[in-house]
Amino acid sequence: MGILALVFLSGHPAVAQWVAVGVKGGVRTTDDTSGSLASESKRYIVGPMAEIRLPLRLSFEVDALYRRFGFTGGASSVFGSSITRERANSWEFPMIVKYRLPVVPAHPFVGAGYAPRTIHGTDVSSGRFLSGISQNPPASIYTYFFNQRSDTSYSLTHGIVVLGGVNLGAGHVRFSPELRYVHWNAPFLNEFGGDGSFQFVSRQDEFQVLLGVSWH
Fold first, then answer.
1. CA–CA separation, 175 and 162 (whole Å)
2. Which of 163, 172, 164, 166 has the alpha carbon at shortest distance from 214?
3. Separation CA 23–CA 176 (nearest Å)
4. What is the Cα–Cα distance from 62 to 113, expressed in whole angstroms?
5. Cβ-based neighbours of 216, under 8 Å, separated by 6 or more
6. How many helices (H) and strands (E) does the chain have?
7. CA 12, 215, 179, 102 torsion: positive or negative?
8. How confident is the model at residue 194 (pLDDT cuts 50, 70, 90)?
9. Which of 42, 140, 163, 174 has the smallest CB count inside 10 Å?
10. Strands 108-130 and 157-166
11. Which residue in 174, 178, 165 sits closest to 213, CA to CA?
């Protein structure tokens, strides 16, 4: 252990070239929802990344990827109407083992791993309903108007990641375009209207096109 620590502290070239840090960004190519509500999610994905080179053409990569979710939906009848808007921030943390194929000059790679994801957001609801007739919040003599905002915290979801791409570049800078597939164990959002007027379910399967830019 003492020898290994001394090698790292001395900045030995054989060790230093195994570590890369940078950023990763791209877009989600699949829709994020199914159902009757209007999605207002952003397609971009972005965040920092780090990769450690291992023996046997292997490497281990960790990302911290941010994205923005949102939707708007409404319900109406002869007794009134309402509208709901939701905005949420998502952070996912893929941990991936990659294998570099022995092909030049493109240097392709494949990988697989696990990605926990946490999402926090805010609901804003407003509307007007006839008092005593609608099952919505009870209230005034003739009409009831509500405008409510609440913070929402979703439970952690988990994803399985499979990817493929290529490493390009020269010197210390590397560009790594890739295609990534993620399957989530459960939808992070599953909204139903109380009267069956709408449904909003986030998809559990998605494809992402990403580009990593790193320095090693």
1. 19
2. 172
3. 10
4. 10
5. 17, 18, 19, 20, 21, 51, 172, 174
6. 2, 15
7. negative
8. very low
9. 140
10. antiparallel
11. 174
Dig out the tokens for 157 from the structure.
């979801």
Q: What is the pTM of this model?
A: 0.76
- Domains in the chain, ordered, with CATH? 17-72+88-120+152-215 (2.40.160.20)
Closest by CA to 80, choosing from 139, 133, 148, is 133
Q: What's 97's DSSP letter?
A: E
Strand 58-63 relative to strand 143-153: parallel, antiparallel, unpaired?
Answer: unpaired
Distance of CA 173 to the CA centre of its chain: 26
By residue count, the chain amounts to 216
Q: How many CB atoms lie within 10 A of CB 113?
A: 19
Rounded distance, CA 67 to CA 45, Å? Answer: 5
Helix or strand (DSSP H, E) at 7: helix 2-9
DSSP conformational letter for 185 = S
Q: What is the pLDDT of residues 57-103, one digit of tens each?
A: 999 999 999 999 888 777 666 667 777 777 888 999 999 999 999 88
- What are the Cα distances from residue 98, in Å, to 114, 143, 174, 180, 184? 12, 61, 16, 12, 20
